[in-house]
Amino acid sequence: MNWDTVCAGLSAIECAGPSVEINGVEYDSRRVGRGDVFVAMHGEATDGNRFIEIAIAQGASAVVTDSREVYARMRREHTAVGAALVERGRRSLSEVSSAVLGYPERNLALSAVTGTNGKTTTAFLLEAMLRSVGRTCVLIGTIETHVADEVRVSLHTTPEISDTLRVFADAVKVGATEAVMEMSSHALEQERVWALPVDVAMFTNLTQDHLDYHGTMEQYFAAKARLFEGVGAPPPRVAVVNGDDAYGRLLIREVRCSQMMTYGMAAASGEYRAEEVTLCAGETRFVFKTPHGDCAVRSPLTGRVNVYNLLAASCAALARGLTLKQVVAGAAAGAQVPGRFEVVPSSSDVTVLVDYAHTDDALRNLISLARELVKQRDGRVITLFGCGGDRDKTKRPRMGLAAGEGSDLVVLTSDNPRSEEPMMIIEEALVGVRETGTTCIVEEDRAGAIEIAIRAARPGDIVLIAGKGHEKVQILKDGSVPFDDVAVAAGVLKEIA
Ligand SMILES: Nc1ncnc2c1ncn2[C@@H]1O[C@H](COP(=O)(O)OP(=O)(O)OP(=O)(O)O)[C@@H](O)[C@H]1O
Ligand SMILES: [Mg+2]
């Protein structure tokens, strides 16, 4: 591919330079290699325009910029390098990447999920359903990226578009026809998914989280709603929306997709409903009521929130052409998402659960679910949690309140304190716990805290280790140290057995 061809697919104000050969595309100057197009973007912290000279020194064949000054300098000083002046760097990154990679997105039917909670679980469930009927899939989300059978570690919930398209291109090469993606509100607002054609869009729920970034709930909702308008692409064909959620109902009124599928548990919540719900540890059953008939669903996932995730994924799978029978079979096979209500294996009669819940809403859901499970065996709920540093501080007392309200004992500890003083974060969360009057043990060291929580448990109790889920590190002031809740808990359980 040459620079002329790339320019032809680029909505640029001006394009110039020799028709040099183009091999790839990069937005990070450190990764630029010979023959790449370097796209300068405004990130959260830096401006790519500052790194243009470095990119050229590393062999960039062409540069795309949104700065008239930089473009003029390119035309004066680097005449052997292609140059394009554009309105917005991120949108151009999408156009250039698609062209250079051969438009992989056109060969994939994309299902995308947004919402505060449940994105990862819903994406995993949908992927499992699509795979169960033999379709080859690519999945991009928080924990892992799947390219057919290959599992890669994810660095972001929703990567930059060039990274997404590279994964898509790899997937198309191995025969993928379906893509499932989590789209965070950050990514939608920053247009990191520009021009991706979404076939099925899912909305799980909206609760107070990430307000440090979005400011108000209205702005946060507007960011999520962009998925249903189409971000640089036509609106999705099918919208799958939670009718039990207040913002979901708002969306149902606003959205103009050609097909709308509404789901929920309340009688008035939509056409696709879960009724006669039975919740046990390691099993969830319900009757799936649909306009095409009813059927019994059984899933190995635990908890009421997963009924919602199963409903969203089932609707999307139907929209992707699976039959009701295939959806039920796929749900039964549904795999455990790492760190999402994950039971730590042990022979002890204390149940230890690791979960990624790191908002007050998720904590509440987690605790009420544990509450439902211990009721049958007269046990207590012991909750361990912490709050992240350098993130929304207003949620700390709210998380403390949520933990204290539902638990018999709280163990308050650290969860990625980052640049902040761990004990200062703990003090802020403690304010909420104190309001509830629930006994609270403070232990700054997370490993020590896990040991305290498990040793405090009696047979029949459930110990919830909340916040980190699948994460494998603790982020401290001077860097990351390896840390794994499941491994630490397993070690303690082995010791006391
Ligand atoms: N449908 C749901 N409604 C409310 N809470 C949920 C739901 N599904 C999962 N949760 C809770 O939220 C936590 C996060 O779940 P999950 O990873 O699936 O969501 P996510 O939207 O991908 O989150 P993140 O934005 O942090 O990646 C779970 O551990 C669980 O406690
Ligand atoms: Mg996620």
Would you give an account of this structure?
This protein folds into 3 domains: 3-100, Udp-n-acetylmuramoylalanyl-d-glutamate--2,6- Diaminopimelate Ligase, Chain: A, domain 1 (3-Layer(aba) Sandwich); 104-333, Mur-like, catalytic domain (UDP-N-acetylmuramoyl-L-alanine:D-glutamate ligase, 3-Layer(aba) Sandwich); 342-496, Mur ligase, C-terminal domain (Protein-Tyrosine Phosphatase, Chain A). The protein is 37% helix and 23% strand. It has 17 helices and 24 strands. The strands form 4 sheets. Strands 9-8-7-10-6-11-12-13-14-15-16 form an 11-stranded mixed sheet, with helices on both faces. A 6-stranded mixed sheet has the order 17-18-22-19-20-21, with helices on both faces. Helix 14 (395-406) crosses helix 15. It is globular, with a radius of gyration of 24 Å. The mean pLDDT is 93. The site of magnesium ion has 6 residues, from helix 5.
